[in-house]
Description:
It contains seven helices and four strands. By secondary structure, it is of the alpha+beta class. The site of ribavirin triphosphate has 10 residues, from strand 4.
Amino acid sequence: MAVTRTFSIIKPDATKRNLTGAVTKMLEDAGLRVVASKRIHMSREQAEGFYAVHKDRPFFGELVDFMMSEPVVVQVLEGEDAVKRNRDIMGATNPAEADDGTIRKEYALSIGENTVHGSDSEENAKIEIDYFFDEDEIVG
Ligand code: RTP
Ligand code: MG
């Protein structure tokens, strides 16, 4: 299996509860390596642009407000089959449906405040990495 990259966000509910390290440890224990990381406070424009795919969904306004509510940590993760590996350790979007041992089962508060984002395909991973990082910020 090839080493690939994915994009992760440690969301406001997690940074607010000082869980950046705890979440990162679960990612690392799952075989992912943090090859870029920065803490940012998203602007409305950044949050709306990032989640543009969801702009017609009923939760869009709530989602954008949430993502701007506190700082987040954006990360590039590297590992074998990184997109799937990350989605597996994240768990289901709704923590009530997340498997034991996943980040969302352990830490998510609700379907909205669900602790982490992870790219859902390699194509989207490339787009999302480019949205937040210059190539020279990524050190593999
Ligand atoms: P993400 O994009 O954040 O990794 O999460 P996901 O793929 O598991 O979920 P997605 O369907 O892409 O939804 C993006 C984020 O929107 C919020 N959401 N709220 N209130 C709701 O019904 C609802 N549904 C989704 C969540 O924060 C979700 O992660
Ligand atoms: Mg998604």
